[in-house]
Structure formats: structure tokens, C-alpha cells
Design brief:
The protein is an alpha/beta fold and 268 residues long. The chain is 48% helix and 15% strand. It contains 11 helices and 8 strands. The chain starts with 6 loop residues before the first strand and ends with a helix.
């Protein structure tokens, strides 16, 4: 299925659902496709004006699903049963994309046996600025995922993984946004202590983070260590700072945080 002249229904216009909608709009995918977004209650000013003009806002999941070719489930896991009950037979034959944390492909196939295609997607909130890292899993052949990959490729980077890695992907990519933001915040605070005003410190921290990531991405995924070596001169200030951070447990703390998050998600 190619993404052209399709109707996409986002069931759950919360933070993630709206981030996807904004990303679709920014990528120009709503010029040749229709979008329906549902929410139990639409608060005032919940939708940017441009998106209001491009999307149909609804509170009727069944009607939205019935009209859609592709259905994105962007609700909380505990809301899934109610959504499926409300949509009823309208889900039959549809392409279903689930962003629900912890709900496996096996569980989705068991609960939506009449679906035409089921895909799990684990993006992050950088969808809104088209910089998400989205992990996909499905029992279908890769060729059948073309339209879904097109959606998320327009919103950042995508990778297809085994379903048993989706919990880890949630921690590394989805929760990972919060972890990186906290690191940027800490770097900003350090810059303030060194004498910069807060806006200047944050600008430097953000751009330096983008630069570091770009060095790896633009060099075909090279390892961080060669890039680190380029800025760590003998007896220099960089190696002094790195060694102090490691003495204080920087890498260990990050790894322990990821493992703790992974253990928690497996309890949900």
C-alpha cells in the first residue's frame, strides 16, 4: 500500500497523536491524504489553526475507523479495550498501527483478528519536528509496510525490528527523548555556572548536542570514540572533564537508568 489518496484516522488526539498529526502536516502528507483525529473531548485551542483546516476532528471512534484506510491507535494501553469495543466491526480489513506501550503483536492479533495488517510503531515526540526515531515491527512482509514506513519516514528515521525488542526500543527511543533533554538541561546549568546567561547556555548546549549527533550520522554511523579522540589533547581540559564525569559515574548512571526504565516497562 502506497500513501496516496488514503484516509488516516488517529484514534487518540493526545500528545503523541497530535505530534503525529503535526508531523504529517509539516511533511506535506495531508495534501494528498485525508486525516481524522478523535478524542473523547476536544478542549478549546487544542489544535493549531493549520491542522484544524487540514484534519477532521471527531469524538466518534467507530465513524473515524469506518472511514479510514489506516488506523493509528494512539491511546493509553488501559484504554485499548474500550476503543476496540467502540470501533467494533469497523476494524475489519483495516491497516492498524499501534503505538501502545507494552501491547505485543501477539496480543494485538488476538484482540483484532479481523484486521488486514497490524503494525507496532514506537516513535517519540520529536515527530512534531520531523526528527523522530521510530521503530516498527510486524508479522507482514517488508513490502506490505511501505505506506507505514512512508508515514514515519516523513517524520524522522525508521527502523524495522523484531517485536521482542520493542520494549527496549521504547526505553531507548521514546523515553530516550526525556533522557537527552535532561542531559541538555544539565549542560545548560553547567554553562550558567561558568558565566553564561541561561538562553545563551541553552543555545550552545542544544547546538553542540546536534553537532555531536550529526558527526556520527553523517559519517555512516561511526563510533563515538574516534570523534572524542579528536578533541581530547594530552593534559587538556577535555580529558580532564571527561575523566571527572566518569569518576562520578556518568556512563554507569546512564546505563543504570536505561536498565531501570526497561525493568519498569516489563512490569507494566
Amino acid at each position: 500500500m502506497k500513501l496516496n489518496d488514503k484516509t488516516i484516522a488517529i484514534i487518540g488526539g493526545g500528545n503523541l497523536g497530535m505530534a503525529i498529526a503535526q508531523g504529517l502536516s509539516a511533511a506535506g502528507l495531508l495534501q494528498h491524504n485525508k486525516l481524522i483525529i478523535t478524542r473523547r473531548k476536544w478542549p478549546e485551542q487544542a489544535v493549531p489553526p493549520q491542522l484544524q483546516a487540514q484534519a477532521t476532528l471527531s469524538t466518534d471512534n467507530r465513524q473515524a475507523v469506518a472511514a479510514a484506510d489506516i488506523v493509528l491507535l494512539c491511546v493509553q494501553p488501559q484504554q485499548l479495550a474500550d476503543v476496540l469495543a467502540g470501533a467494533g466491526q469497523a476494524l475489519g480489513g483495516k491497516t492498524i498501527v499501534s503505538t501502545l506501550t507494552g501491547v505485543t503483536l501477539a496480543q494485538l492479533h488476538a484482540q483484532i483478528p479481523a484486521a488486514g495488517l497490524i503494525v507496532r510503531a514506537m516513535p517519540n515526540t520529536a515527530l512534531a519536528v520531523r526528527m523522530s526515531m521510530t521503530c516498527l515491527s510486524s508479522r507482514a512482509e517488508r513490502a506490505q509496510l511501505a505506506a507505514i514506513e512512508e508515514i514515519f519516514a516523513a517524520l524522522g528515521k525508521t527502523i524495522v525490528i523484531d517485536d521482542d525488542l520493542m520494549q527496549a526500543a521504547t526505553v531507548l527511543a521514546a523515553s530516550g527523548i526525556a533522557f537527552w533533554l535532561r542531559l541538555i538541561r544539565a549542560t545548560t546549568q553547567g554553562g550558567i555556572q561558568l558565566g553564561f546567561d541561561a538562553p545563551e547556555a541553552q543555545q550552545i548546549a542544544v547546538q553542540t548536542c546536534l553537532g555531536a549527533a550529526s558527526l556520527l550520522q553523517d559519517n555512516n554511523g561511526s563510533h563515538p570514540e574516534p570523534e572524542i579522540d579528536k578533541v581530547t589533547t594530552p593534559r587538556g581540559c577535555t580529558i580532564e572533564g571527561l575523566n571527572e564525569m566518569e569518576h562520578q559515574g556518568l556512563s554507569s548512571a546512564l546505563i543504570k537508568g536505561l536498565v531501570a526504565s526497561y525493568q519498569k516497562i516489563n512490569e507494566i
